[in-house]
Amino acid sequence: MRLSSGAALPLVALLYALTGYAEPPPRQPAQPPADLPPGVSPALWKLVVPASAAPTPEKVALGQKLFNDKRLSVDDTVSCATCHDENFGFSDGKPVSEGVKGQKVTRNSPTVLNAMFNASQFWDGRASTLEDQAKLPILNPREMGMPDEAAVVAKVKAIPEYQAEFRKVFNRDVNYDDLAAAIGAFERTLYSGNARFDRFIQGDSKALTDSERRGWALFNGKGRCNTCHAGNAVNPLFSDQKFHNIGIAAHKQDFVKMAREALKIVRTGDEKQIDELALETDFSELGRFLVTKQENDIGAFKTPTLRNIGITGPYMHDGSLATLWDVMDHYNKGGVSNPYLDGGMQRLGLTEPEIDDLVAFLYTLTDERFTKLNQKFLTQQRARKNQRPERDTAVAMGKKGNLGDLAPNPDLNVKNPAELGVYGTELSVKPAPAKKP
Ligand code: HEC
Ligand code: HEC
After folding, report:
1. Pocket of ligand 1 (CB under 6 A)
2. Where is the signal peptide (predicted)?
């Protein structure tokens, strides 16, 4: 219960005095760190960090330790960092993640960088906060495999250094909420917004090569990427934070039948059940539908961030696309048709040099602290550039299937690079209306 009336306050103070706990500091808004990178606005930071979740240095240190500690798993083999590894941009480099006893889950590990800015967590948004999210993998049988919250608390409590540290940070015994709060605090230090692109958008037009600049124009023009992945000064993620069916799940499944079966068993609001269905069963492919039970959410997944995209492959919720060239092939042919395909998915008519430009642009979104890693992955992906299982040039170029209109590119000859795209402004290039079939 929250005591808010002024008269109640002295009573609270008395309680603290009697119990010997230190009185918590007054709730002031958390202050953004002085060294926020150019791509992360202080206003946004303030918006997403509630006073109660201020990442104090002690809490962050505890959270970082927990994030990296394999003892949070049932057999001491898996930590959060196993699947969110700094050497893979805080993802794991695998198509789908592997948890305890080598068990695979059904989904690809997203980066935790900038997860603090997500409007919801997971590919289907089934957790609303970092804290809610952190509680789930520890208990998921295929991820960290702990039987229940009490078992986690008992295990952590039995480690003397944790017992002392929890007491220092939270003034009380280890409990599951505080554990999640510490991890959340650490994750609130994993912001990332210092990419070459950020220098470009702040006016250094030489920060990008000609090819990368053409890629940015295509991103906002013919490629139509900005309809879902728009970036702007207060949303650094390049994501609309919404859910779309872009036809990835359609590679495999008979959705409609599956959705009917799922409706019978999904208990709305039961996060743990949905977590297990999402990570351990074929229902995974239903995506957002598992959370909302809305038909138009069938096969829809959250638009992911594109920051650090060069180092966080393989791509998509199921890790089915190996390189950014494969991603471009998927979009170029208008996705994979299915009854719930998003209306924004149309053939793009991109030529091979245009695809190269767009990929080059995507590689400029990696934080400069990962420059070496970025170069390594770019070289690896480029080496696979001629293996293109998703490519369908006839459809992309309108020689087969639905023609659709192509979107125009914005003019590259502007003084302010930001004017090329939607950065900080409204959509400048409206997608052409879809043709009726
Ligand atoms: C076995 C691998 C594995 C482990 C261990 C694991 N994760 Fe994840 N993580 C994933 C996968 C896979 C997803 C995506 C699942 C989904 O969306 O259904 C995910 C999603 C997330 C997300 C959501 C990101 C987004 O953009 O939506 C966050 C945050 C996260 N994990 C943090 C953690 C933390 C904190 C821990 C430790 C308590 C942890 N993870 C342990 C694999 C793992
Ligand atoms: C209709 C909305 C929409 C449009 C248009 C769109 N995307 Fe996406 N994008 C998504 C969604 C949703 C996903 C995740 C889909 C899934 O996993 O099933 C995604 C995934 C991606 C991924 C994989 C991210 C990861 O972490 O695995 C990349 C890269 C990407 N998009 C780039 C682009 C580019 C480049 C364009 C333009 C050519 C584009 N997108 C156009 C919505 C869109």
Report:
1. 67, 78, 80, 82-84, 97, 99, 105, 107, 109-110, 112, 115, 118, 121-123, 130, 133-134, 137-138, 143-144, 183, 278-279
2. 1-22
pLDDT tens for residues 200-256? 988 888 999 999 999 999 999 999 999 999 887 678 899 999 999 999 988 776 888
* Both tokens assigned to 318: 């199921």
Condensed to tens digits (0 to 9), the pLDDT of residues 339-358 reads: 999 999 999 999 999 999 99
Residue type, 298: I
Cβ of 238 closer than 6 Å to ligand 2, yes or no, is no
What domains, with CATH codes, occur in the chain? Answer: 30-187 (1.10.760.10), 196-247+299-420 (1.10.760.10)
Q: Determine the pLDDT at residue 30.
A: 87
Of residues 58, 98, 143, 271, which has the active-site annotation? 143
Active-site residue flag, 261: no
- Does pLDDT of 11 surpass 80? no
For residue 157, report the distance from its CA to the centre of ligand 1, in Å: 24
CA angle 224, 228, 231 (to 5 degrees): 95
Q: Could you tell me which residues come within 8 angstroms of residue 8 by beta carbon, excluding any fewer than 6 positions away?
A: none
- Residue 203: CA atoms inside 13 Å, Cβ hemisphere, count? 0
* Residue with token string 């998927």: 330
Query: Model confidence over 268-289: pLDDT tens digits?
Result: 889 999 999 999 999 999 999 9
Pairing of strands 243-244, 301-302: antiparallel
Residues 198 and 37: beta-carbon distance below 8 Å: yes
**In angstroms, rounded to a whole number, what is the distance separating the alpha carbons of residues 261 and 67?**
36
Do the Cβ atoms of 413 and 217 come closer than 8 Å? Answer: no
Q: Which ligand 1 atom is the nearest neighbour of the CA of 184?
A: 35
Q: b/e map of 142-155 (b: 16 or more CB within 10 Å)?
A: bbbbbeebeebbeb
Q: Is the shortest distance between the CB of 285 and ligand 2 below 6 Å?
A: no
From ligand 1's centre to the CA of 33, what distance in Å?
25
Contacts 24+ apart (CB under 8 A), 225-229: 225/331, 225/358, 226/421, 226/422, 226/427, 226/429, 227/344, 227/427, 227/431, 228/303, 228/342, 228/344, 229/303, 229/306
- The best mutation among 83, 289, 308 to test binding of ligand 1, ranked by most ligand atoms within 8 Å of the C-beta, falls on 83
Give the residue among 116, 117, 122, 119 at the shortest CA–CA distance from 140: 122
Q: What 3-state class would DSSP assign to 405?
A: coil
